[in-house]
Design goal:
- Helix 3 (41-55) crosses helix 5 (72-79), helix 7 (102-108) packs parallel to helix 10 (142-148) and helix 14 (192-201) packs parallel to helix 17 (231-240).
- A two-stranded antiparallel ribbon has the order 1-2.
- It starts with a helix and ends with a helix.
- It has helices spanning 3-12, 26-36, 41-55, 62-69, 72-79, 84-92, 102-108, 112-120, 124-132, 142-148, 152-160, 164-173, 182-189, 192-201, 204-212, 221-227, 231-240, 243-251, 261-295; strands at residues 15-18, 21-24.
- The protein is elongated.
- Helices cover 68% and strands 3% of the residues.
- By secondary structure, the chain is mostly helical.
- It has a domain at 1-96.
Length: 296
C-alpha cells in the first residue's frame, strides 16, 4: 500500500488490514470514537485500550483471542471502523492454529453476542457464505458448532439473518466430513432447544426433508437420537410431525454399525427403541383411524 493510500485509509478508517496484519491509527481511532460514534472521551480511551491490546498487529490470532477475551462493545467498534472490503478480509482470514475464521471461532466459544454483531455488519449473501463455509480437520461450519453445543441464541441469530430459501439451503447443504447436517449435530447432542429453533425457521415440508436426510453412517436425525438414547429429541420430532409422517420416519430401515461388539450392542438397543416406537405409533394410528371411522 502506498504512503498516500495509507493516509487516506487511516483518516477514513482508523483500523485497516495490510499484509495479513491489523493496523490501528490510535489518534484516528480516538477521534472516530468521540466524533463519529459519539462515545465520551473516558469510554473511548477505555475501548481503544482494549482494542489495541488485542490487535497486536497479527490477524492470524485475532479472532481466537477476540472470541475468548474481547467485549462486545470493542468488537462493535472494530466492525464499524474498517472499510467493508477489508472487513470481508478480516472475517475470512483463518486462525493459524485451528484454521477457523471469525464466525467459527465465535461459534466454538459460544459467543452469540459477537455472532449477532458480525452478521449485522454484512449483507445476506455474505452471511450465507460465512455461515456455510466448512473449515478445519472435521469440515465444520459455524452453524455446526452452534447446533452441536446447543447454543440456541447463536443458531437463532444465524438463521434469522437469512431469508427462507437460504435458511433451508444452509441447513440442508452444510455437511461436515461425516455428512452430518446441523440438525444431525443437534440430535446427537440432545439439544431440543436448537431443534425447535430450526423447526420454527423452515416450512413444514422443509422440516420433514431435513429429518429424512442421511448423515453419519446413513443415519437420519431420528435414528441418531435413538442411537444416543436422546428421548427428549425423539419426543420433539414426534410432536413436530403428523402421525403418517411419524410412521414413515420410523419405517426407514436402521443401518447397522459394522465396527465392534460395543457398536453392535448400541445398534441392538437402538433397533429395539425404534421397534417399540413403531409399534406404539401403529397402535395409536389404528385407534385414531377407527375413532374417525366411527364418527363418520
Amino acid at each position: 500500500m502506498a504512503a498516500s493510500e495509507s493516509i487516506t485509509t487511516t483518516l477514513q478508517y482508523p483500523i485497516w488490514i495490510e499484509d495479513g496484519k491489523i493496523h490501528c491509527d490510535e489518534a484516528g481511532l480516538l477521534s472516530h470514537l468521540t466524533q463519529n460514534l459519539h462515545y465520551s472521551v473516558y469510554d473511548a480511551i477505555k475501548i481503544m485500550g482494549e482494542i489495541t491490546k488485542h490487535i497486536n498487529g497479527n490477524l492470524q490470532y485475532f479472532w481466537d483471542k477476540a472470541a475468548r477475551n474481547m467485549s462486545t462493545e470493542s468488537i462493535r467498534v472494530i466492525l464499524q471502523s474498517v472499510q467493508h472490503s477489508q472487513l470481508n478480509c478480516m472475517l475470512s482470514y483463518p486462525d493459524s492454529s485451528s484454521y477457523y475464521t471469525a464466525l467459527n471461532c465465535c461459534a466454538c466459544n459460544l459467543r452469540s453476542d459477537m455472532i449477532k454483531m458480525i452478521l449485522d455488519n454484512v449483507n445476506e449473501d455474505e452471511c450465507y457464505s460465512y455461515l456455510g463455509t466448512t473449515e478445519g480437520e472435521w469440515g465444520v461450519a459455524p452453524i455446526h458448532w452452534s447446533c452441536s453445543k446447543g447454543d440456541t441464541e447463536s443458531v437463532r441469530a444465524m438463521l434469522y439473518h437469512l431469508n427462507q430459501d437460504k435458511r433451508y439451503s444452509l441447513l440442508q447443504k452444510t455437511q461436515d466430513v461425516f455428512r452430518n447436517t446441523p440438525l444431525h449435530d443437534a440430535s446427537f447432542g440432545g439439544h431440543t432447544g436448537v431443534m425447535k429453533v430450526v423447526h420454527e425457521s423452515v416450512t413444514q415440508t422443509q422440516w420433514i426433508n431435513l429429518l429424512e436426510l442421511n448423515g453419519f453412517r446413513e443415519l437420519t436425525v431420528l435414528q441418531i437420537a435413538a442411537y444416543q438414547d436422546r428421548q427428549s429429541c425423539i419426543e420433539t420430532i414426534r410432536d413436530s410431525v403428523s402421525d403418517e409422517v411419524w410412521i414413515k420416519l420410523l419405517s426407514t430401515p436402521l443401518p447397522e454399525y459394522q465396527l465392534n461388539w460395543n457398536a453392535k450392542d448400541q445398534y441392538q438397543r437402538a433397533l429395539s427403541k425404534v421397534d417399540e416406537l413403531r409399534a406404539a405409533a401403529k397402535v395409536q394410528h389404528a385407534i385414531i383411524t377407527q375413532d374417525n371411522t366411527g364418527l363418520e
